[in-house]
Design a protein that fits this description.
Elements (H helix, E strand, L loop, with lengths): L1 H11 L2 E2 H12 L7 H13 L3 E6 L6 H17 L1 H9 L2 E6 L1 H12 L3 H4 L4 H6 L6 H29 L5 H28 L28
Helix pairs in contact: 1-6, 4-5, 9-10
GO molecular function: DNA binding
Protein name: DNA-binding PadR family transcriptional regulator
Organism: Actinomycetospora succinea
Length: 224
Amino acid sequence: MLELAVLGLLHEAPMHGYQLRKQLHARLGTFRAFSWGSLYPTLRRLQRAGLIAETSDAPAEGTEEGAETAASARSRSSSRGSWGSKSKTRRGRRVFELTAEGKDRFDELLAEVGPQAWDDESFGIHLAFFSRTPVEVRMRILEGRRRQVEERREGLRSTLSRAGEQIDHYTRELHRIGLESTEREVRWLNELIAAERGETPPPAAPPTPDDEPGAGARPTPNGA
């Protein structure tokens, strides 16, 4: 799924690794956390496959990236001398951009439907690029996600009803919070599906525990 996320972001604009990482966290941080360790191997693999290309672009002065580069160069110059500082400052950063093959691959990934598109690992990433996804694919993913969460909800209800007093208070509360989370997500998915069908306006955002009066710390809509 990191491949889909990277291709989707580069479809919007060329970026270097630092920008990609920030955008991944800004767009998908609620659902997934990506590290340098997973990002750069993915970029190298996409580059070898011809899906992205690399250019060089020195960060502009006055930007956060430029300040970071200048600070790094100054730090190195203290041990390498002024010549090393000039050399490092002039060196541009690697900028990645989508190739024609990459655009085709992105469209191919967007069109994929099936359990892998609506499971906990992938649903948030697909949702982030729904504006570029065909409406029929969006509907199949939303309906598949709803079925999955409904099954999880019924499983939690069954567990709570069977367990009764056999589990302690804290374990019962853990199951109860999970049940409430799945119920909220089902309601949210119902709203999204109705909006896709033109029945209602789309919801402004997924429901969160903070939206509920008096609610304490609760899981995110995907039950994590």
